[in-house]
Amino acid sequence: MSIVDKPFAAEMVTTKGKVYKFDAIECMAQFIQEEDENNIALLLVRDFNNPDEWVDANSAFFLISKELPSPMGGYLSAYPTKTAAEAMQAEKGGEILTWEQLKQKYAR
Q1: How many CA atoms, within 13 angstroms, populate the side-chain half-sphere of residue 27?
Q2: What is the SS3 assignment for the chain?
């Protein structure tokens, strides 16, 4: 998949080294619902404020804000710290979630 909007991109790397690229974080959150977590080595998301930087999804904070439309319509952006997520929330509104909370939101 080609990445349309870099600040919203995500990647999953399996224990065998296969890389799955996602145009939006919500796509990865949905995709991993079908995966055995023992086969996942890394889950990475782009830092919205520094889109050249990857952040481990497990330690990232996520903002769902209608003021930040992502490519697939989830309005979901990622930040390396809660402070960074709160700063964007103060500007754009929305709800902050951890990766565990986000996975639950996209659970089928």
Answers
A1: 17
A2: CCCCCHHHCEEEEECCCCEEEECCHHHHHHHHHHCCHHHEEEEEEEECCEEEEEEECCCCEEEECCCCCCCCCCCEEEECCHHHHHHHHHHHCCEEEEHHHHHHHCCC
Contact predicate 48/5, CB 8 Å: no
CA separation, residue 85 to residues 39, 51, 89 (Å)? 29, 14, 6
Burial of 63 (0-12, 13-18, 19+ CB in 10 A): buried
Length of the chain: 108
The 10s digit of each residue's pLDDT in 45-69 is 999 999 999 999 999 999 999 999 9
Q: Is the entire prediction scored with pTM above 0.90? A: yes
Strand pairing report for 19-22 and 40-47: unpaired
Residues 6+ apart with CB under 8 A from 46: 6, 7, 8, 9, 10, 53, 54, 55, 78
